[in-house]
Structure formats: structure tokens, C-alpha cells
Amino acid sequence: MAQTTAEALPVQDLSIHDGKQARSEAESSSSSGYATPVEGASEQQSAVHSNAQSSQTSAEKPDSPKGPRKVPFEHPLPSCQPKERPPLTADQETKYANLLKTVRAWTDIPNSTSKLAAKSPITDSERMWLTRECLLRYLRATSWSPTEAPKRLLNTLGWRRDFGVDSLSPDHVSPEGETGKQVILGYDNNARPCLYLNPGRQNTARSDRQIQHLVFMLEREIDMMDAGQDTTALLIDYKGSSTSNSPPASQGRQVLNILQGHYPERLGRACISDLPWYITTFFKLISPFIDPVTREKMVFNQDLRKHVPPSQLDKEHGGDVDFEYDHTIYWPALNTMCEMRRAERKRRWEEAGKQIGEYEAYLRGGDQKPLRDVKEQKKGL
């Protein structure tokens, strides 16, 4: 198995900040070059903390070695901003308030999606997952249905428990990532983190771990979102793929069910390139199962520079980034970034009172005040 220890971890781009301040550094970051690895976990944390406090990235320092980029970008360019959603109507606010009241009353939730599933107490991590924006995503996905939204939420919570989403470890899925068939690199024009899917780099036989790897990477892509963002960009390139390494229709439907059922309203854009005839046939087979809203977000064989800033787009896909996938460097770097972001969000959630319905923008270090302060402010009016 490839090395995944902190000893291979470059310092460049690591930051504990999810907010706007650190994003200002992204524009001046080089699209190539990476910093010297640190030698231990404690030194790694110290270097990361020091880097977060500095306005100068390690890529800008004169003693930084040059060469291909081997780690993810930490933030989108400041010129790339998330699309603003329109404010909720009075009716939508009422439906959200009713759903929030329902969810806050949950004490025990199902351990799977089975109708006869046993139940156990809701955990803090599940309560933190139930943000304001999470509830709104499920309301939008169910056309603001006051009965369907809570059902869908419970179904997803049961699926996450049964699938083991929160317990998937980097070491377990690491073999799936050794060829770089799934890579998180850069952000698109609307500040969405980009997940490259490269089926032509398939390196394992069909197994449950392949699906687990995809879910793991989707969760890491969500970790890499900055404040104000809650959608993803998928860049799917079938170059080099063949009938032998392409997923069967049954696996495609399984992935589609997971994405549509348990990550609703998460897809912002899917750019699909170099489709061979058999993949076109595959898309025709699964097309009836694709939600119309999802289909509208899919574009085929377009110039990716129209969707992703060239300075954060892999040169293999038409960008300016000289990126080289080295699993021993990329994998620990990605997971350390995400672990630090999750730890910071957890700290902020606990500090603000561990509330269901907390604002994601606050948890991600944005300007948004926590729910507790918003409530206090409303009381004072």
C-alpha cells in the first residue's frame, strides 16, 4: 500500500482557515512547485498553523523547490464567488421552521434504510450534519414538501450509518486512489471544488470499495468548500477508458441512486469529456434514471477553461497547472487539509452551542454569525 504518513506531507497550501481571509492568498499561489515535506506530525501542525497566519504562501518563498504541483489548492481564487441563492419566501421560511422543529425533536434514528431498522440515539456528528443549509437542500429536493423532506433526511441518516460514511478511513480506500483516478484539484468559476473522475486510470476490480472510494472523495470535496458554497463540480474525462475498465450499468445506477438520494442539491456542474461510443450508450441506458434538474447541470465536450480558471485547471484538461499525481504526497496532503477543516468546524459548532440548524457559512469561517447570536439579535429587536 502507498505511504500515507505525515512524513510525506508538503506544507504548501495547508491552512486551518475556511474563510475569506485565507482565500486572498490563493490568487498569488503558484500553479507549480511545492514545499519541502515536514518530518513529523507535531512539526506538521506547527508549520500549518504558521502558514495560516502568514500572508505569504510557501510557494512564494525563494527557497521553495520548483516543479510540478503535487498537492490540492486550498482555496478558490478571490475573483471566483459562489452563486447567491435568492432569499426565502415567507412560505419557505415557515416550511423551514416547521422542518427544523421536527428534526430537533428526533432523539433516536434508524440504523439503516430498512423499514424495520433498529434505532439508536442521534449522535453529535449527525446533529452537526443537520445544518440549516442541509435542511434547505432536502426541502428543495422534495419541492418544499413538509412530509417528504423529513422522510428523505431520515433515509439519508440511516444510509450514512449503514454505509459507514463517517467511519471510512483514508487507509481503507487508499488503494483505489493510487493512480489518481479521482482527484480534487482547484475550484471552478463559482468557487466549487473540482473533483476529477478519470475512469481510464481504473486500477482495481469491481468491488464495494470502489463505491466507498467515490463517497469518501465526495465527502472530502464537501470538506474543501469555503464559506458560502454548498455545491460541487465534477470533471469527468473518459480519455483512455475502455470497455474493460468502464463501470457496468448496474454500478452506474447504484452511484446515481447515492448521488440523487443522499447528496441532493449538491451538484453544481458536471463537465463530461471524451465520451467513446460505449459510454454514450451507457448514458442512454441510465438517462431515464437521471433527475431532470441534474441533467440540466451536465455539459458535454466543452472547453473546461470556460468553467474553471486556467490557473487552477490541470494542464491535461486545458489549464495552466503543471500537476503531477504522486499518491505518497497528494493523499496525506488532502486528508490533512480535510481533517483540519473538519476539526475547525466541529470546534465552532461546539463553541456556538451544538445546535441543529447551524449556519454552514459560520462553521466554515465566513462572516455569518452563529445561530445563537442571530436568535439573540432577533430577541433584541
Could you characterize the architecture of this molecule?
It contains 14 helices and seven strands. The chain is an alpha/beta fold and 381 residues long. The strands form two sheets. The chain has a five-stranded mixed sheet with strand order 3-4-5-6-7. Strands 1-2 form a two-stranded antiparallel sheet. Strand 5, helix 9 (249-262) and strand 6 (267-273) form a beta-alpha-beta unit. The longest helix has 25 residues, at 327-351.
Element layout with pairings:
Blueprint (H helix, E strand, L loop, with lengths): L19 H4 L17 H13 L36 H15 L3 E3 L8 E3 L2 H6 L2 H10 L6 H16 L6 H4 L8 E6 L5 E5 L10 H16 L8 E6 L11 H14 L4 E7 L3 H10 L5 H5 L1 E3 L26 H25 L8 H4 L7 H10 L1
Helix pairs in contact: 3-5, 5-6
What is the radius of gyration computed over CA atoms, rounded to a whole number of angstroms?
21 Å
Ranges where pLDDT stays below 50 over 5 or more residues in a row are 1-18, 30-64
Mean pLDDT comes to: 84
Report the oligomer. single chain
Short overview:
The chain has 381 residues and is of the alpha/beta class. It has 14 helices and seven strands.
Keywords:
single chain; about 375 residues; alpha/beta; five-stranded mixed sheet; two-stranded antiparallel sheet
